[in-house]
Specification:
single chain; 694 residues; Immunoglobulin-like; Glutaredoxin; four-stranded antiparallel β-sheet; 25 helices; 16 strands; flat; disordered N terminus
Length: 694
Amino acid sequence: MKRILVILQLLLVVLFTQAQMMNPVKFTSSLKTNGTAEAEIVFTGKIQPGWHVYSTGLGNDGPISATFNVNKMDGAEKVGGLRPRGNEISKFDNLFGMKLRYFEGSVTFVQKIKFTKPTYNIDVYVEYGACNDQNCMPPSEATFKGEGKAPAVDAKAAKDEKKNEEAKLDPAALARAKADSLAKLAALGSEVDTTQAVDSAALASAMETLDTKSLWKPVVKELQQFGGANDIANHSLFYIFLMGLVGGLLALVMPCIWPIIPMTVSFFLKRAKDDKKKGIRDAVTYGLSIVIIYLGLGLLITAIFGPSKLNELSTSAVFNIILFLLLAVFAFSFFGWFEIKLPDRWGNAVDNKASSTTGMISIFLMAFTLVLVSFSCTAPIIGLLLVQTVTSGDWLAPTVGMFGFAIALALPFTLFALFPSWLKSAPKSGTWMETIKIVLGFVELAFSLKFLSVADLAYGWHILDREVFLSLWIVIFGLLGLYLIGKLKFQVDAIGGDINKPMPVACIMLGLCSLAFSVYMIPGLWGAPCKAVSAFAPPINTQDFNLNTKTVEPAYKDYELGMAAAKASGKPVLLDFTGYGCVNCRKMEASVWTDPSVADKLAKDYVLISLYVDDKTPLPEPMEVTFNGEKRTLRTVGDKWSYLQASKFGANAQPFYVAIDNDGNPLAAAFSFKEDVSAYLDFLNKGLDNYRNK
């Protein structure tokens, strides 16, 4: 028992405390020359006790390896790769399933270079990972900047650099990016001057002279100098935990679980006979076992998907269609069409095993039996919870969500064991539980359409545009309202009671709210913003019939094309890194962009470029790029914009707004999700002022 409590305590610490901002490794850097054309850039780190820094070349499946990265290296070139020096420890790690190499106490990384010009200007950094036994720091950097006269110049290197100067910058990828934009410009034709302030001739001229290399240049450090957060997750872990807690409370009142609570608690109390403390102890162990089982399920989901696959899954058409079908099946199950249940022999086998064993193992198996028996009620709720957490992009989310679910589910068993008299005042089982099931069925059916919409938008199928989506939601919530006021009945309503029995007052009031919600969405069919559903509905630009003329639409959805237009018109650019499946992006567009002051400034003072990182449109030709020392192949438009956001701005969350000048340099701190019109206006004004004062 004590061991279980200690384990749970550790899990709570890991899941719900964030690591304090600390710097366990202090690096210094220097350039060592010996009077020749060769030199060494030396990064020397002092590591705090208990921490370690990983070595180079650990592979993609391991922790963060130390890598050498170049912001600028004029007058010099690399010779070989980054080399570690010091007391390197090599040890097999069970978590990663591989042999890891790391340093404790101190570490030195050395990068050899050759001077290719009489003068040099070097701006480089080493990216490394640092961990202790409990947590890890985010990828960190040790920088070196220096310029001066070279002691000597390598003649061959100088010749090779002059010959391949442009090749180092991956000119093929840059040229391909520009060619894609030129093709889009040609496709626009005469439509350009009807939608933009720049005529087609000026835009074409600006495109021809566009410096693609400068536009794609990383500006991470320049952006950080403005301050502010540049990478904010869509949902905090605390939000995910609360969502799991609510899901557990809903599962608790399902007909598969609620009637079991008094029977289970009574069993523990009777088994203990005169030893009340033992009964309470058994009930607490039972509750902790439920937590451990569901927590294990969350960890399993995390292990299966892993952090690198979550964002990819969230925009995958196949994955989203599977989620749509899964939630639809769960909804129909709640409606009473069929019952989802595991094979009876599974539950019987575990139950028999629990009866034949004693002690804590017996109680754990009893909890496992509850999980199996209640599967038909809990599976749809768990499914909806895991769908939301897996697609959130946070690799810890499934574990945290399941932890919240398990806490809510296990708590009543423990509380009723501690206070048996509460059982007398607890609501009795009845038809009210079936009502909750059917209501949840309507909710799951409505949410299933969101995932079909994500696939539809990402691939441009246009089968679930905004008016179609809203029509379906109007019908779903209209039927929910009719059910709650007693005008719509299901077959399960006839079981165990009078089908013509009036609905309770609380249900009728909720039914009126649902009907009012349906009426609220009706104007959306003609272009009304419907801000309450903007986070779930497709963007308004997918609507065929739209009477709303106050919407804000991006001027361009191509980076180079938009930058050329901004240069030709003499305006700064607002880059909007967004996604078709981004809930918070739709919230910002509905609540912030629609403000008259914001809309006016976006239309008149900026060139708005929206780049969808989940756009699955194939590129005319795949692009080979190198990022953090690894080669990547960009195959879709979304891949291209995701790479641009990560490489240029060091961010990967959406929404992500950054104001830049005509050379691609930031004008202010980046802005992420925050439904604050005044703060957003301040962000736009600051960028505009800095642009005008340049």
